[in-house]
Structure prediction request, 123 residues.
Amino acid sequence: QVQLVESGGGLVQAGGSLRLSCAASGLTFSIYGMGWFRQAPGKEREFVAAIRSSGAIVYYADSVKGRFTISRDNAKNTVYLQMNSLKPEDTGVYYCAARMYQPTMTEHGYDYWGQGTQVTVSS
Prediction:
């Protein structure tokens, strides 16, 4: 059974930081590109960041460039999202997703999704 389990969400004040983790099991993690997406209340799910299977190339939405950093540790089957300088508009449920063989900047084609973790940024 393939599982992607996000953790690390919570409540933080604007300007603060959080680090999200996504632990994968049941798949060959090292051949999947990984992505982070989020869904704010009343809005569609949107792309946040992605990383190729080797970790050599990363992609970011314009809204988070310079503030968020995606990384992965293939030995631990885990992908991370470091979020700094958080803004209230970053609030939402954050999902990780896996796509063979490489990620895209849209949700199309991703093979597996996690359950999501809530991030709330207060003003």
Summary: The CA atoms of residues 93 and 118 lie 4 Å apart. The chain has a mean pLDDT of 97. The chain is about 0% helix and 50% strand.
